[in-house]
Specification:
This protein is α/β, with parallel strands linked by helices and 249 residues long. It has eleven helices and eight strands. α1 crosses α11 and α7 packs across α8. The chain binds phosphoenolpyruvate (PEP).
Length: 249
């Protein structure tokens, strides 16, 4: 059985008091033990969140990291800095990082390799733009994103990988991929992993769907065979909505 996972990407939201309040509200809910729950606050709120969630079932993740171990990278954060704040999970390749901050398949390959070497867990995001779907290039594009960043990893590194398929046209737009579209792509992704590695590895990788998941649509999306949970943006900022999504399995 694959791990069921719901991760909240807070993006550049929630300062110190807002983080305190959201975590207080989240912590009032019982987290079911068959779902792994993550929240990804901004870098400045990581220590606060780790401290607050000590002994609680929610895990703190970072939203990004640099591939380099240290050095002249003004404004950047390394894996050892994250680990030093007791953060062992990082989101990599989010579409906003790709489109607004120039991340590429090549630069992500370096980040993935650095995070794996540091023993971190990665929530690796990828997905097509609307124009690519309209031109029916979405399968090729997704295959390339996966192959470039991940397919040279040794099999055992996949214990550290969670995939998050996020069609860019569905992120923050209110437009969700239909459950059928999500299932079709997730099955395709799993097949690519099987082709590159083997069936047993492919069957163990959790593949999350991301893109305007809400309490009202989560149940149907999560019921798809190859959808193992969600990466949640907007709806992760409200404790009630986020927990409704966690409880939608
Ligand atoms: C995201 O940012 O990863 C995301 C899925 O956002 P939203 O849920 O707001 O579409």
């Amino acid at each position: 059985m694959r791990n069921q996972i719901v991760a909240g990407n807070w993006k550049m939201n929630n300062n110190t008091p807002e983080t305190e309040l959201l975590l207080d509200n989240l912590m009032q809910h019982v987290i079911r033990d068959d779902v792994s729950v993550y929240v990804a606050p901004a870098f400045t709120q990581l220590s606060q969140s780790v401290e607050k969630l000590k002994g609680h079932a929610i895990t703190v993740a970072a939203q990004n990291m640099n591939a380099a171990a240290s050095g002249a990278h003004t404004g950047e954060i390394s894996s050892s800095m994250l680990i030093g704040t007791e953060v062992h999970t990082v989101i990599l390749g989010h579409s906003e990082r790709r489109s607004l901050y120039g991340e590429t398949n090549d630069s992500l390959k370096l980040k993935v390799s650095s995070a794996i070497d540091a023993g971190m867990k990665i929530i690796f995001c990828f997905g097509e733009e609307l124009s690519e779907r309209k031109e029916n290039k979405h399968f090729d594009l997704v295959k390339k994103q996966l192959a470039s960043a991940l397919f040279e990893l040794p099999s055992d590194a996949w214990n550290q990988i969670i995939l998050a398929y996020e069609p860019v046209w569905a992120i923050g737009t209110g437009e969700t991929a239909s459950p059928k579209q999500a299932q079709e792509m997730h099955a395709f992704i799993r097949q690519q992993i099987e082709n590159q590695y083997d069936k047993s590895l492919a069957d163990h990788v959790s593949i999350l769907y991301g893109g305007s998941v809400k309490p009202s649509n989560a149940k149907e999306i999560f019921s798809m065979t190859d959808v193992d949970g969600g990466l949640i943006g907007g709806a992760s900022l409200k404790a009630e909505d986020f927990m409704d999504i966690v409880n939608a399995f």
